[in-house]
Amino acid sequence: MLQIKSIIRQFCCFIAIVAVLPSCKSDSSMDGSAPIGDQVGVGGSMARFTIKGDKLYTVSESQLNVVDIFDPKQMSVEKSIDLPMGIETIFPYDTMLFIGSNTGMFIFDVRDPSSPRMLSVYEHITACDPVVVSGKYAYVTLRSGRTCRNTQNILEVIDVGNPTSPVKVGEYQMEHPHGLGVLGQSLLVCEGDFGLTEMDISNPENLKKIGFVNDIHGYDLIPLRNKNIAIVTGETGLRQYRITEDGRLGEMLSEIAIQKSDAEEEAI
Description:
Elements: H1 4-9, H2 11-20, E1 49-52, E2 55-59, E3 63-68, E4 76-82, E5 87-93, E6 96-101, E7 104-109, E8 117-123, E9 131-134, E10 137-142, E11 154-159, E12 167-173, E13 180-183, E14 186-190, E15 196-200, E16 208-213, E17 220-224, E18 229-234, E19 237-243, E20 249-257, H3 262-267
Organism: Aureibacter tunicatorum
Protein name: LVIVD repeat-containing protein
InterPro entries: LVIVD, Quino_amine_DH_bsu
């Protein structure tokens, strides 16, 4: 039986699937935080698949796969690219894919949608590693844990203006960072049992912590810009927050709370 926490964590993937249904043909800007109407799918930073035009890109533990979805009744894998073990997440931005692994971040060019071309690898300490991108900066969280083989909890800021040569420009101590997302000039970092941390990224090379939400378990989030809503998922449930005009996290609009059983508490 699937544990309730696993169902909640996969809600981000559900959002992406729903957004695909209207059309598999339209192109997109590939910005994972762009308005839904401008793209065929919206996913969080923990997502393991994304869509551009007629292609579905998925990651397994050691591969990037390209799937032709022009005809949903006859989908086929066009190409599989071998990668080192430990691949975890995939995030689209502009004409690139940013793939997070427990040893680094891989940047792929997909201007030829059927043949992704690796541009570079940014290596870091062994840790769990989701990534999001805004402008010419990538934001990567590295966290500790039994499955992450890491004792540090940090946020790294990486200049990807030249995607063939990414450079770290900042590092910040966090509590226990998981998924993350950009809201205008704010970066929201989910911190597990510590809730959410909001950071001002108006100067990407000098971030400042500007807000906290402590009463929620934060796993991942999806900004829905055309709705001015941010969806936050976690082991305690799912919440919707309003995004303010200046791109900040606003009031909570709704919540689906989850009560874990004693057996689930022991299994975590």
